[in-house]
Amino acid sequence: MMINEAEDEEKWLAEGIAGIQHNAFYMHRALDSNNLREALKYSAQMLSELRTSKLSPHKYYDLYMRAFDELRKLEIFFKDEGKHGVSVVDLYELVQHAGNILPRLYLLCTVGSVYIKSKEAPAKEVLKDLVEMCHAVQHPLRGLFVRSYLAQISRDKLPDIGSEYEGDDGTVMDAVEFVLQNFTEMNKLWVRMQHQGPGRVREKQEKERNELRDLVGKNLHVLSQIEGVDLEMYKETVLPRVLEQVVNCKDDLSQYYLMDCIIQVFPDEYHLQTLETLLGACPQLQPTVDIKTVLSRLMDRLSNYAASSADVLPEFLQVEAFGKLSNAIGKVIETQVDMPAVGAITLYVSLLTFTLRVHPDRLDYVDLVLGACVKKLSNIPKLDDSRATKQVVALLSAPLEKYNDIVTALTLSNYPRVMDHLDNGTNKVMAMVIIQSIMKNNTCISTADKLDEDDFKDEQNSVARLIHMLYNNEPEEMLKIICTVRKHTMAGGPKRLPFTVPSLVFSALRLVRQLQGQEGDIVGEEVPATPKKIFQLLTQIIEDLSTVPSPELALRLSLQCAEAANDGDLEHVAYEFFTQAFVLYEEEIADSKAQVTAIHLIVGTLQRMNVFGVENRDTLTHKATGYSARLLKKPDQCRAVYACSHLFWVDDQDGVKDGERVLLCLKRALRIANAAQQMANVARGSSGPVTLFVEILNKYLYFFEKGNQQITGAAIQGLIELINTEKQSDSATPDSASDAFLASTMRYIQFQRQKGGIMGEKFESIKL
């Protein structure tokens, strides 16, 4: 069913893109002939493709970007009154006669941008007109994107301090009012998406809603960039209006994301001076909002602000930051009656961390935090939640780490009272921590949040080292040792396996390499030691590890085994381990960063393999390139895809030099890099640095040097021109690192040109 839905969506997207391309073709003809009415007719038909309700947000975004590119060309045409012969005032009236509301609004926003630029009407009036007319689109997805387009075309035309539109065209307050109104309506549309569809469909829509959050959040980013929003305006207008919308929407996804946005985009000084207002909203949030993370991030920002300069510390005292944070945490814990103990203790750990950074000399504040924790734990004689216990250990360890003086920590009256709530085992851990602090002459413990794990990790690392010490020159006896160790290791439980299994695997691989070249079973031996037998054992061990779960480690070990099988010329075994790695990647590894690391490990290992025949290598290579192109972030996609080009050109393998497929990989990477630039331009108003293009250029140069006939000097020269064009565009973001990287690359090309010989002649074809 899911496959059919995906196929249908791809078909609908293709139809929409075809409709845009068809009408854009006739629109361009009309633009070239300066025929305004025909241009408006076909542009409206083109924009009607955005009325679809059949696409997911991800696919709708692809369709929107196609239309967005065409609207930029249409805007250029509208700016030149000499071409179409209609004043911008009349043009603004004319586009309001478009048949359907959605195309009409996109055209109005496009003409409105030109209208503001012409200054024939005050910017504030045009902006107010546009933001109110967008009320006509109440479909959540379509409404979000049309308002996102309005935000995009207006961000450089707001009547801000120092802008050309300030004065009679409007004031900073007009700019703020426009952005706030657009933000409010976009959030309402975003929240309404949660009410569409029950059960499994609703879960899918929550995921899709999460993909759209940046469309709403970028309004807050625009607000933070308005020069005229000083502390007074932020305190009196911006923050109250934003928080009003956050609280009233009563949606946990929206509330969590927007609170985090507020904390991240506005200055630290503003947070400090409006602390009471910001914290006052926290108890009003939905009980399901992860408020402890929100507050922890706020306290981290304020702590870093305090650490940035001693001059700002009096401000913390002036606004009574500690008292306000302490009261807010108390109210949140009191309001959210179902909050588990671990959540409350986590909040107190964050507050204590803040206190030790901002007020290290106030032992009374430290004791107050510990006392609040004691009060929360008063109904729990002994903690039996391991996560809560871990947080209590972190709470008690923080003063030891800060003061490097056990006597100071033990003078806190609530310190032993917190320890009373620990079970016997954890009390022993804390006792050892205190004793070690004394015996190590006040040595600071560097990882307070993992103190309860230290002894366990030391123990398991010792076991792992012991496994490496178990060795016998006789293969059969060594295999018996490995089997015995495996039996005891697997009985150790899931927590121990990630520490001990790698040592067991590498001991087995050492035996495999010792036996390389040996074929068949050893006659007369009770446990024949052959590479195939050991690889069967390794497969079982890694499968056990993958159920812990520890999929990233299981994948790494699978690839190590595949390399060992490659060295032993065991194609079938190597293929099975690669299959195991791909299954782990597809079914178990969900974190996007872990996926990026995993795909690069897979590609790097596959490149080094020389055991596979054409069919098996093609199958694995196809899988690797497919997964690379489906990574979450465009830059990660781009880097993984161009890394796959090395799978088709390996110097030490005569049969693997497919220049055409190398070029296909690099071209695909280039398309992805271009899409990443466009997405950055839509999301942030700037296309970002050209780093990805320069990285791809270096890949082109590598294969050019290696003799790939498909990579020509003309192609490299075209890529250099593309990079220079991107750098010079209005939306480019200056980046010294990218510039240095490009300059270094150009120096290398020049060096090769001047070098002479065959390589020098090749590089002469690149015209700089």
UniProtKB/TrEMBL annotation:
GO BP term, pick one: intracellular protein transport
Sorted UniProt keywords: Cytoplasm, Endosome, Golgi apparatus, Membrane, Protein transport, Transport
An example Gene Ontology CC term for this record: late endosome
Membrane topology, record value: Peripheral membrane protein
One Pfam family hit: Vps35
Presence of the UniProt keyword Amino-acid biosynthesis in the record: no
InterPro entries: Vps35 (IPR005378), Vps35_C (IPR042491)
Top-rank taxon: Eukaryota
Compartments, as annotated in UniProt: Cytoplasm; Endosome membrane; Golgi apparatus, trans-Golgi network membrane; Prevacuolar compartment membrane
Gene3D superfamilies: Vacuolar protein sorting-associated protein 35, helical subcomplex Vps35-C
Function: Plays a role in vesicular protein sorting.
UniProt family annotation: Belongs to the VPS35 family.
Name used for this protein in its record: Vacuolar protein sorting-associated protein 35
Source species: Herrania umbratica
